[in-house]
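Let us practice reading a record.
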Amino acid sequence: MLDDMNILTKRDSESTLDSSTLQYQQTTMDIDIIHPSHDERSITRVVAVGMGGSALAYEFIKTWLDSELKVPYEIAKSYAFPASVDKNTLVVASSCSGNTEEVLAALDLALEKGAQVAIVAGGGKLAERAEAEGIAHVVLPPIHIQPRMLTFVQVRAHVALLGLFGLLDAERLLTEIAATHDWLKDQTDQWAKEVPTDKNLAKQLALHAVGKTPVFYGGPLSWSLAYKWKISWNENAKNVAFWNQYPEVSHNEFIGWSSHPVEKPFAVIDLVSPLEHPHVLARFEVTDRLLSGIRPAAVRIDLLGDSLLHQLLRAHVLADYASIYTGILNGVDPGPVPLVTKLKEELGKL
C-alpha cells in the first residue's frame, strides 16, 4: 500500500508527505525581528509560552541549547505561568495561528507583571498586538502547512529573539542551523514517498507500529524527540501514543511493564543519541533485556549526525514521515485535525 502513489495521494489531502520533504528549506529561512528596540534590562530567566506544534521549537531549543543559554529556560503550556515571573523575566509568546487563547491570556499576564515580552506569530491577534504595542516580534513566513511541521523556522525565530536580548550568540547558532541544509535534504530524501518500502525506514516503522499504541523513549538529549514523535503520531496518524525519558523510566515505568504479556498491543521505540551519558545508553539496552518476553522488544533508532543539532533535525523529519505513513495505513487523512477546530468552536461558546 505505501508504495502505491495513487493511495498516498488520495489519502493525503494536504500533501503532508511533500511538506515533510521540504522541511529542510526552513533551516535557511531569513528571520526579521520587527521592533527590535528594548530597554536593555537585565534578563534573569526565560519563560516560553506556547501550545501544541507552536511549542515544539521550545523543546528543541531546551535540548539543543541547554549548555548555551545563560539563564534558566522554562516552558509554560497554559493560560498562566509561575508567579515568580517579574520584570527581569523574558516571556516569549508563540502561536502559529496567532489566535491561540492560552498564549493570548499568558501575554496579558506577562504585560501585567511588567515582564519583558517577545512574540513569534504566524499572524492573527498575536501579531496585531505585537505591532500595535511595539513588541519585539517575528512574523512567520506564510508556509501553508500544519504547525507541527514548522518547527525549524520557529527555532530560528526563537534563537534570533534570544540573541536580541543577549542570552546567546544568535549569529553563530543561526549559521550552524543553516549549514545543515544540504545534509538534511540528502538524509530526508531517503524517506520520500517515491522511495520503496524495502529501502525506506519511515515506511518500515509505520508497518511495524500500525495497529499498536507506540511508546517512545528518549534520554536527556533525546527527550524532546520522544515528545515530538508522540505529537506526530497523535496528529498525523490520529493514533494514541505515549513518551517518557531515561533514566526516570528505570525508576517507575520499567516496573509497570512487568505484569503484562508480551502480546499487549504496544510498539516500543527507543530514540538513542550516541552522545548520551554511558549509563543512560546502558539503561536502554539493559531495560530491553530484562523485559524480554514480558514487553514487546524495542525498536532502537540510533540518531545519526555529527552533532546533537544534526540528530535533532533529522529525527524530527523522520517522525513526521513515519507517522504520516502510519496515518495512511490507519485509513485517515494525516493533515487535517478537525477535532481541534471543533474544540476551539466549543470553547468559543463559553
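A brief commentary: The chain has two domains: 31-179, 183-330.
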